[in-house]
Amino acid sequence: MRWVLALFLVLSVAMLPVPARAGEPVDLALVLVSDVSTSVDTTEYEMQKAGYFAAFTDPDVIAAIRGGTVGAIAVAYVEFATDAVTIMPWTVLRDAASARAFAERLRAAPRGFSGRTSISTGLRQAMTELSIWGGGETLRRVIDVCGDGVDNSDEPASVARDAAVAAGITVNGLAITDRRARWPWADIREYIPDGLPQYYRSEVTGGPGSFVLEVQGSGAFDQAIRRKLLREIASR
Question: Which residues pair with 171 in a beta bridge?
Fold first, then answer.
C-alpha cells in the first residue's frame, strides 16, 4: 500500500500549477477580478466559476498561451464586494496540464464574502497583485473586471481605473446583464440609461486595447470568457 500512496503523491504534485516566481518572463500578467456582491446569487457565482473553468481548459486558449513569445502567462484571481481578497495567488500557465490544474483549483475555491459593490476596491487589489508580480520581462499587464452592477461603495471606479491606466495597466470588462429581476432596485437603467456595458466603458475600463464584452446567460458567459482570454493572450 505504501507504493500506492507514494505514486498518488507523485501524481498529485505533478498536477499542481507551475509555481510563480514574481517577475519571471511571461507574455501576460492577468488579474481576474470577479464581483461577489449581494446582487450575485449562487447561480450567477457558479456560472462565473464554470465559465472560467471552461475557458482555461479550452484547446484554443491553451494554444494561444503556448503561441506567445515566451509561451506562458501569469494569472491571479480576486473577488470583490465592499472589500476585496485574492483567492488564487499568482500561477504560471504554460500548457494544458498547468491550465487545468489552475482551473480546477479556481472552480473548487469557496466564495469569499458578499456585501455592497466596490469595483474600485477590486481594482486596487488587482493593482497590488501586479505590483507584487513586478515588471520583469512581462510584456503586458491586464486587469479583467467581471460584474453585474455599478460601483455603489467607496470611491468611484473611474478613480482606481485612472490610476491603473497611469501605471501602464490595461483594464478590460465583462458586464453581466442577465439580472433576472431578482434585485429590482438595482436595475442598472436607474444609474446609466445606456446600460451596464456603457457604464463599464466609461467608468471601469481603459488603457491600450481595452474592451468590454456583454454577458447574457451561462452559455454566453462561457463563450465571453473564452473570447476575452483569446483576445488578451493573443494580443501583440
Answer: 143, 206
CA distances from 140 to 48, 53, 232 (A): 24, 23, 9
Level-2 CATH architecture, domain 20-234: 3-Layer(aba) Sandwich (3.40)
Asked if pLDDT for residue 3 goes beyond 50, the answer is no
Sorted by sequence, the CB contacts under 8 Å of residue 200 that are 6+ apart come out as 145, 173, 175, 212
CA–CA distance, 195 with 18 (Å, rounded to integer): 40
For the chain, domain boundaries:
20-234
Dihedral (CA of 71, 23, 224, 159) sign: negative
Whole-Å CA distances, 63 to 71, 171, 228: 9, 23, 14
* Contact in structure between 85 and 125 (CB atoms under 8 Å): yes
Cell numbers 478590460 correspond to 172
Provide the pLDDT for residue 137.
Answer: 59
Q: What is this structure's pTM?
A: 0.85
Length in residues, the chain: 236
Top pLDDT among 80 and 190 is at 80
> CA 15 to CA 9: how far, in whole Å?
10
Per-residue pLDDT at 118 exceeds 60: yes
C-alpha cell at 73: 502567462
Mean pLDDT of 6-29: 56
Of all helices (H) and strands (E), which one includes residue 32?
A: strand 28-35
